[in-house]
């Protein structure tokens, strides 16, 4: 059996991996998308199935108004004392000197059940993890954020003891244990105790193509006692620009029942335009940051290294004791909206799907028009990750707008600054419904104008389709679900990539989504009915 990377395609960054008996679990960041912290499981490390999300109640997570790429950063999943522990950060500020991130702790006895109400831990820095020492003591390990002028923002890795009787930190025990290497931007810490050594794994170098993971170790948890591995970087693609996997770094270590070792890392798969010279731009990661798994071994001096070199490999041997795990071959989906709740592939932005946004069941998803796709507060958008470079997605929409401020349709969306969509609206000049298309490129808004396609008076429904083909994508419309008409223009998929959004803003941590949206800027909450959604990977 082999592990084919990435094991979790499409927007699954910052993996925190653990093993409980013969089952592996991975928790991933979800940023501003609801619900919070996706969890998958496997018994072979190669095939993964969705378990659920840890944060499903607004009492656990309040992200209304959070900026794009704020919200849940780098959750840490662990298992000790017969239960699962999850540390997560809710980041309220993304750009500038401040982050305003708060760390919380939730627990559960059943990873498929409900998680506890959150305990506020601290706000010292993000990417916090919980280390369970073999003497029963527990410690919060975290990146430390320094907003002061003249100071490096990433102010080392701090450790603070956590009191399990009071379920609170002991702030008087806080100390810096490592300042990182000269690469700087040290974050994402995880501690493991092996053979009398405390091993500290940390991400460095930022979150783009310079990203990497470094390792340090110490015999104690004393201040500044950790020394860097002479083999650093542990994993990176900074110096492997042509490999299939890029950006590997932030992640976590896990052992198998038979004593083998593996490392789960975020990764990106960039594509480049055919006419684009290789001049330092490695391309565009429209699928966002995904999860890869690499095999790890240890040298004679007790330092870990990635088998095949620190650039990792696309195909990795599965553990010798792997238990083959049945899992879907791809992520194609058809949803006829017969269930009373949205399926696990669907996500909303910042807030849960509630009756205020819409309803599902009896063969339709109904959305009530709210704010524009730029809105950070009141938005009726239901979307799923792009998980392949090439796919078709389509849906039927029934919508009766009264003016041009009312729109409903199919969107390809990265964040509030970068998105496009095809939609049904009203054209007062023609006195009829039309199908338009528009793109928002960080305030540069363009639409079809008079080129919008009129909806026939006898049309019973409007079918919208998008065809995504790696570097470009288009929209089409049909009024009988047989004959399709291409809407004018082909869109550059790069504008829905981490790398393009990075060039425009500091909020670039998610990936592209395809979804359904309804807007009513006139404030009448005009409903749109969506039926027969399909997402087909090619």
UniProtKB/TrEMBL annotation:
Residues 334-536 form the Beta-xylosidase C-terminal Concanavalin A-like domain. The record marks 127 as: Important for catalytic activity, responsible for pKa modulation of the active site Glu and correct orientation of both the proton donor and substrate. Pfam families: GH43_C2, Glyco_hydro_43. The active site is at residues 14, 187. Keywords: Glycosidase, Hydrolase. One of its GO terms (biological process) is carbohydrate metabolic process. One of its GO terms (molecular function) is hydrolase activity, hydrolyzing O-glycosyl compounds. Belongs to the glycosyl hydrolase 43 family. This is Family 43 glycosylhydrolase. It comes from Bifidobacterium avesanii. The lineage of its organism: Bacteria, Bacillati, Actinomycetota, Actinomycetes, Bifidobacteriales.
